[in-house]
């Protein structure tokens, strides 16, 4: 379905009931709002894996402004503050109070900005494979460590030039490094990426655009926050996860979990542990 939010139409999907039988009454289930990566990707990357959590939360999937199946919108509105404001407005429109917000990659950056701009709004925050600042040098060095000089140069070109030629080279040399091991990408990974509706123009403009730094803003976060990071993630490196942990108020850091056998795509490499941690954090 589509919902009008801040002047644009966002595509959403919902999985699981909002009210569940509990003895002689109906109990309201927590809401898990999932923010996808990219930008320029869409919510389909969460399916079907995260649907396993629908027995403990009502899951709301959304294609963020400018992404996927949502309405074409003014590129001038494609910025972190607008995306964060859209999260708040979407919840207000749908009547969602105290959501648990999970952001993966770019979605995690949006989630951090949302939680700092509206600190009393979320119940909990889950930051999966994400960054609070865009450190191009760190990303280039991470790709060098995983894939050598060719991968490092392809990453640098994408992050500085933002051309279709650089994007194609990045796809050849860097995308296969998102998860360690020769089995990536698997047939399931390829199918998952094929299901997305990409906005490559948005991806290029964001990755090569003005750097951002949300670390000072994280001091405003008030809700329990869980950080999840792969130790061999070249695009949102482990050092970036540590920066997030160091920037949050110590009282809100509910957990910082490192997945030693994972890169950026934790569900495909250590999915059972990931889902167990998410389930525990949702219900606690």
Could you tell me the CATH topology label.
Rossmann fold
Average pLDDT score: 96
- Coarse structural class: alpha/beta
User: Which CATH architecture would you pick?
Assistant: 3-Layer(aba) Sandwich
Number of strands: 10
Indicate the multimeric state. Answer: single chain
**Lateral arrangement of strands in the main beta sheet:** 1-2-6-5-7-8-9-10
Give the name of the CATH superfamily: Alpha/Beta hydrolase fold, catalytic domain
- Inertia-based shape: globular
Please write the string of helix (H) and strand (E) elements. EEEEEEHEHEHHHHEHEH
Distance, first to last CA = 31 Å
Binned, the helix content reads 25-40%
Q: Compute the number of structural domains.
A: 1
Estimated share of beta-strand residues: 15-25%
Q: How many helices does DSSP assign?
A: 8
Describe the protein in words.
With about 280 residues, this protein is an alpha/beta fold. It has one domain (about 1-135, about 210-284): Rossmann fold (3-Layer(aba) Sandwich), CATH 3.40.50.1820. The protein is built from eight helices and ten strands. It has helices at about 80-95, 105-115, 135-160, 165-175, 185-195, 200-205, 240-245, 265-284; strands at about 1-5, 10-15, 20, 25-30, 30-35, 60-65, 100-105, 125-130, 225-230, 255-260. α1 (about 80-95) packs across α2 (about 105-115). The model has no long low-confidence stretch (mean pLDDT about 95).
């Amino acid at each position: 379905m589509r919902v009008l939010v801040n002047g644009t139409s966002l595509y959403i999907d919902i999985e699981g009931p909002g009210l569940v039988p509990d003895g002689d009454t109906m109990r309201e289930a927590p809401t898990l709002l999932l923010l996808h990566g990219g930008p320029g990707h869409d919510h389909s990357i969460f399916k079907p894996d995260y649907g396993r959590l629908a027995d403990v939360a009502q899951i709301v999937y959304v294609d963020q402004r400018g992404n996927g199946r949502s309405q074409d919108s003014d590129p001038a509105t494609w910025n972190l503050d607008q995306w964060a404001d859209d999260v708040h407005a979407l919840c207000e429109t749908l009547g969602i109070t105290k959501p648990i917000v999970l952001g993966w990659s770019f979605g995690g950056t949006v989630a951090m900005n949302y939680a700092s701009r509206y600190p009393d709004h979320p119940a909990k925050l889950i930051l999966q494979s994400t960054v609070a600042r865009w450190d191009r040098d760190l990303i280039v060095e991470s790709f060098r460590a995983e894939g050598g000089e060719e991968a490092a140069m392809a990453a640098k070109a994408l992050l500085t030039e933002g051309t279709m030629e650089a994007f194609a080279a990045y796809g050849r040399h860097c995308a296969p490094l998102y998860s360690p091991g020769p089995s990536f990408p698997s047939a399931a990974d390829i199918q998952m990426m094929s299901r997305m509706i990409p906005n490559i123009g948005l991806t290029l403009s964001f990755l090569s655009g003005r750097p951002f730094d949300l670390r000072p803003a994280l001091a405003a976060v008030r809700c329990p926050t869980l950080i999840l990071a792969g130790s061999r993630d070249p695009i949102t490196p482990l050092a970036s996860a540590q920066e997030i942990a160091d920037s949050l108020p110590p009282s809100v850091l509910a957990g910082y979990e490192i997945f030693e056998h994972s890169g950026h795509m934790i569900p495909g490499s250590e999915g059972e542990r990931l889902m167990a941690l998410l389930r525990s954090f949702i219900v606690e």
